[in-house]
Specification:
By secondary structure, the chain is an alpha/beta fold. It folds into two domains: 131 residues, Aconitase, domain 3; 118 residues, Aconitase, Domain 2 (3-Layer(aba) Sandwich). It is 36% helix and 18% strand. It has twelve helices and eleven strands. It has a five-stranded parallel β-sheet with strand order 4-3-2-5-6. A four-stranded parallel β-sheet has the order 10-9-8-11, covered by helices on one side. It has a two-stranded antiparallel ribbon with strand order 1-7. β2, α3 and β3 form a beta-alpha-beta unit. The chain is globular, with a radius of gyration of 20 Å.
Amino acid sequence: MYSGLMDRTAHPMTLSQKILAAHARNLPRPWVQAGDVLQVSVDWTIASELAWNGMERTYGLLGRPKLHDKERFFLAVDHTVDPVTLATDKWAQKLVQLSRDFAKESGIRHFYDANQTILHTRFYRDLVRPGDVVLGADSHTSSHGGLGAFSIGLGGADIVVAMVLGSSWIQVPEAIAVEYEGTLPFGIAGKDVILRTLGLLGRNTVAMERSVEYRGPGVYQLSTDSRFAIANMTAEFGGLNGIFEADEVTAAWLAGRAAEDDELATSPMEGFRADEGAPYVAKYEVKLGEIEPIGPR
């Protein structure tokens, strides 16, 4: 008798692998491993006006098809925001107008014009949820792993295809675990923690093209904003994505979030955890008590 439970027990998975397995289409077994190439359902695609400039060409070449879900594409003008530049620079005006025109044409729900918001901050605080798969046309899309999402930056063409099809092809990455131990000194926050991590382990070294899963008893001291900063700078670490398991800190944050969309606020949400014995390529310990403030705030 076939037992999916036995398969999962015999093949433990990391947090990122758990999320990808849950989103995989036509998966022949209930587990995935590094190197597997999966077609996965995508919960969100996100971009800035700077990225949309290149994405617009791909979208046009595809024949400007209907979006898979116009409620799940998030577009923010947050790079071209200086009022003088917007008023005088013809290239900047064209850049912003392309996004405005697309937002009107497609009827997307989540479009934010210049000086209304910041792309990653707004999306993180209002919409992303644990267990989501998020693809963005920006390397710092990794930020959203702070709330337990599998969130990666890809090229603009990849994002266009995902926003049209609602799915993408992803190769399951190897993973490392960064384990935070000890107690944070007073006044130390997420930026200090990730800078210390980079100082100890090096940029574009052990994390390169891998999932980075931030774990250990020390993470419970980190606010959701600190986790955002750490996951954000996973891009500087060289990682494909950075991610924290959803916990009581995450739950408290979500409970206080304003429900911008009733359907999203009430729909089921999954908080995944890595299995015991998950196949990390390596584990690295970082002692929080040894961290000192680094550079200007």
